[in-house]
Amino acid sequence: MPELPEVEALARFLDERVTGQIVGRVYPVAVHALKTYDPPVTALEGQAVAGVGRHGKFLDLTVGDAHLVLHLARAGWVRWSEKLPALPPKPGKGPLALRLLLAEPAGTGLDVTEAGTQKHLAVYVVRDPLDVPGVARVGPDPFDPAFTLDAFSALLKGAGQQRRQIKGVLRDQSVIAGIGNAYSDEILHAARMSPFKPAGNLTPDEVTGLYAAIGDTLAEAVERSRGLPLKDLKAEKKSGLRVHGRKGEPCPVCGDTIREVSFSDSSLQYCPTCQTGGRPLADRRLSRLLK
Q1: Is 176 exposed, middle or buried (0-12, 13-18, 19+ CB in 10 A)?
Q2: Quick check: pTM over 0.85?
Q3: What DSSP element (H or E) covers 155?
Q4: Distance CA 288, CA 207 (A)
Q5: Less Cβ crowding at N or C end of the chain, within 10 Å?
Q6: What is the chain's mean pLDDT, rounded?
Q7: d(CA 198, CA 210)
Q8: What are phi and psi of 248, to 5 degrees?
Q9: In which order are the strands placed within the sheet that holds 96-102?
Q10: Spacing of C-alpha 7 from chain mean position
């Protein structure tokens, strides 16, 4: 699933190419992905792109007085091309969900696609990004200057957070925007912290270390993506991960074997030596440290 670093890289890549350009045509190919009807997608046509930004994991193209907001879900992506066909794409069972063609040069534009059979990609055309329910709920962004150590500490002490496992807190978009399953694993490994430690049990030094790990991990991931073509961003993400998705491989820090805890629809990876005092986590839902 694209997380903050990948969506940030997408936003920067597209901002350099489409800002100031006029939208020629917009084709919503997968109608189920379109979550709004007013204004219609045709309202974007003939309008200039004012900029491309992000709200957590949501990509936001400002077009005229409207916003084209995309949530790429687990298997969505954006593909940039200078050779798109002029003929309207035909609806079908393929991965194409939406095509946006610029007025010029001819053939220049982007395709929004979604792989797999489970379709969760969401496309919104709204007058205000806050009209998108997911955007309205997002918490502070780790790259926002207001996301200070004090602000982070206050979040962890907030109502309902102290008893929650820190892995879940980091992934909760209403608490912190943009961090998902992969980068929460990476952040906790960098902070040398168990994913199941209650947020309320963190010492001041642990809070400081976790805060630093959030900033460093995300900033490093964005920097690795700088200048890469969109088609290479997903592969770069995988190559840059130290523990997530690397079950059975040696930890790059201590050499211990990376372990996994599986759930019904996801899994997490961690290093016992770096994060849990050498003790493996039980591989079952609501896992606890083995005694």
Answers
A1: buried
A2: yes
A3: helix 149-156
A4: 21
A5: C
A6: 92
A7: 13
A8: 85, -10
A9: 23-28, 96-102, 109-114, 76-81
A10: 6
